[in-house]
Design goal:
There is one protein chain. By secondary structure, the chain is α/β, with parallel strands linked by helices. It has 5 domains: 48 residues, no CATH class; 122 residues, Ribonuclease H-like superfamily/Ribonuclease H (Nucleotidyltransferase, domain 5), CATH 3.30.420; 128 residues, Ribonuclease H-like superfamily/Ribonuclease H (Nucleotidyltransferase, domain 5); 115 residues, Endonuclease III, domain 1; 66 residues, 2-Layer Sandwich (Nucleotidyltransferase, domain 5), CATH 3.30.420.10. It is 35% helix and 19% strand. It has 21 helices and 18 strands. Strand 6 and strand 7 form a beta hairpin. The longest helix is centred in the middle third of the chain and has 18 residues. It is extended.
Length: 578
Amino acid sequence: MGRLNYIARFIFQLTATSEPIFKLLRKNQAVKWNEDCQIAFDKIKQYLREPPILRPPVLGRPLILYLTVLDGSMGCVLRQQDEMGKKEHAIYYLSKKFTDCEQRYSALEKTYCALAWTTNCLRQYMLSHTTWLISKMDPIKYIFEKPAVMGRIARWQMLLSEFDILYVTQKVIKGSVLAEFLAHQPVNDYQPMQPEFSDEDIMALFATKEDEDNERKWVLFFDRASNALGHGIGAVLISPEKQYIPMIARLCFECTNNIAEYEACVMGIRAAIEMKIERLNVYGDSALVIHQVKGEWETRDHKLIPYKAYIKGLIEHFEQIEFHHISRDDNQLADALAAFSSMFEVSQEEDLPLIKMQSYESPLYCNFIEEEVDGKPWYFDIKRYLQNCEYPDSASKNDKRMLRRLASGFLLDSDVLYKQNHDMMLLRCVGAREAELILQEIHEGTFGTHMNGHSMARKILRAGYFWMTMENDCCKHVRKCQKCQIYADNIKVSPTALNVLSAPWPFSMWGIDVIGAIEPKASNGHRFILVAIDYFTKWVEAASYSNVTRKVVTKFIRKEWICRYEIPERITLIMLPT
C-alpha cells in the first residue's frame, strides 16, 4: 500500500477503488482477504497494465497547456479534450531545471522563460491550434498589454506573438497534477533556455516565380467621367519600373456611361498594343465592363456588344492579359484624368497645352528654413565617430571622452543614425530642416491639435524622431503659433486658493451683540459689554457700559462705526436686551 500511495495521484479514483483493502489496515480488524479485496486489486493491476499513453492532437480542437513553475525548475503537460469534452488525453510533457542565472529571475520572468521555452519545443503542435494556458499567474496579460517592454521580455514577446495562446483560470487541480510532478522531478539539463528568434540563420528571402511574373507585367488603369460639360475618358499605363504614362481623351459624341467606360478601356489597350506590351493587368472600377469582358456576365445591351467583340479581338495581341475590378478609391489617378478631360474643351486648331503635375510635401515657405550654420547636422560628429572612429580636428581630450560617452547611446544602421531610448526603442535622428517640418505637422498638421510644447515633445518621441533640443524647440514653436495666441483661453487664476466669502467688501456688514450682565460689577460700575464684529476682516470693536439703552447703542454706532468706517451697508443685531 505504501507503493500505491506513492503513485496515488496518477491512478484515477484510487481511494474509492482501494477502499476494501484500506479496511484491512484498521485497528482491531481481522485481516481477511475476501472477494472485494481481490476485485479491487485486479482493477489496480489492470489500470497499471494499460496506463494513459500519449496521443496525437486532433485538428479543430484547442490544446490545454498545464504549466507549473517552481523556484528552480518547471514542468508542463500538453493535453486535449475528447469529442465529448469530458476526458483529457495527454499529448506531450516536458520538464526543465533552471540555470543559475535563470533562478535569479523574478517569478513572473520565470513564467515567461518557461512559456517561451515550451512554445519553442512544442512549436509543431501549437502553431496549428489555439492553446489554453493554465498556470498560477497570467503572463499573457502583462507581456502583451504593457505599452513598452525591454530586454529579454521584449524578445519573449516577439517569440510568443506568433502563437494563439489564451489564459484560462484553473478550475480543478486534477489536470495540473502531472505538471507539478514533472516540476518537482526535473530533467538534469542545465543548458540555458535560449529565447532566440527562429530562422536567424536565413540571410535572404527569394521571390517565387509567380511574384517575378507579376513584377514584369504592365498595369493599366482606366475610368470615365460624365458631367454637364461633356464626357471624358482617362487611362494610365504603369511600367514594371513604375513609370507612369497618362492618356486622356474627350468624347465629342453622345454616349452612355457604360459606353464611355468601354471607350476608356479600348484606349488603354490600344496604347499597350502600340507599345508592344505582352503581359498586361487591366484594372477598372466598372463592374459591368470587367465582368462582361471576362465572360462572367451576359451582354444584353446591343450598343455594348460591338465593344465587347472589339476588345476580344484586341486581347489576341497579348501573350497574357488579366482583368480585375477595383474600388473607386484605388482608381483615383484615372478618375482625375477623366474628370479633367471632360471639363476641358479641346480646340482642333490649337496645340494642346503641356500640363506638368508636381507634388509638394510641405508649404513653400518651409523652403526658407535656415539650416545649420556649417551645413552639417547636429549629429555629424557622432555619426562620423560611429562610422570611422574619427574625432573632430580641434577636439581636446575631454571632448573626445564626452563624444565617446555620448555615442554609446546611439546606433548607426547603414547611413541612418538612431537614438536608443530608455525603453529600448530606436528614434531616428533628424536635422534642423526636417525637425521644423515635423514640428509643423505635429502642431498644426492634418491631425494636429495645437497642443502645448511638452505634449508635442512626447508625441514626437512616440512617432520615432529625436533631436537634442526637441523640448525647447517645441515650446518656442507653440509660442510663435498665431492661432494659439488668438484662440487660447485667457488664464486668470489667482496664485493662491480663493475662499468663498459672504461679504466681499471690508467694513460693509457688521454684527452687534451684548455681553452681560456681568457680576460682580466693574470698578466703574459697568455690567454690559457692547461688541461689534466685521464679517470680512473679523475686526472687533467693543465698549463697556453700565446699562444698554437706545441712546447708548446709537452713540456706540456713531462713534465706533460711522466716524471710523463710514456708514455700513448692513447691521445685524443679535439678542439686544430691552
